[in-house]
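Email to the structure team, subject: DUF2218 domain-containing protein model.

Hi all, the expression group asked for a predicted structure before they design truncation constructs. Nothing fancy, just the tokens so they can compare against earlier work. One-line instruction: predict DUF2218 domain-containing protein, return tokens.
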Amino acid sequence: MLSSRADVATATPERYAKQLVFHLGRRLEWHVDGDTSTADIAGSTAVVRVAAAAVVLEAHAPDAESLERVQHVLGSHLERFGQRQELVVSWVAG
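Reply from the structure team: attached below.
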């Protein structure tokens, strides 16, 4: 299983995490446990977590193509929602 993570710094992590999960919830079923939300995306796993000053994104997938798909879904939406704050999603293999 391949994994990657992005810690996206923001003063309002709760807002962006909630917005991302709500928006993607139209197509995905999310499981929420406190500050952590998890969803299955075609055999892969997406995780959105609220940290002290960041939204933490995690992607777990069986292959590189699936990992890229999860990264794209999470990252592109969060960057679009955070344009005014110039949020940048940078993935690190993990």
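Residues 16 and 82 are 7 Å apart (CA to CA). The chain has one domain: 13-90. Ping us if the truncation boundaries need rechecking.
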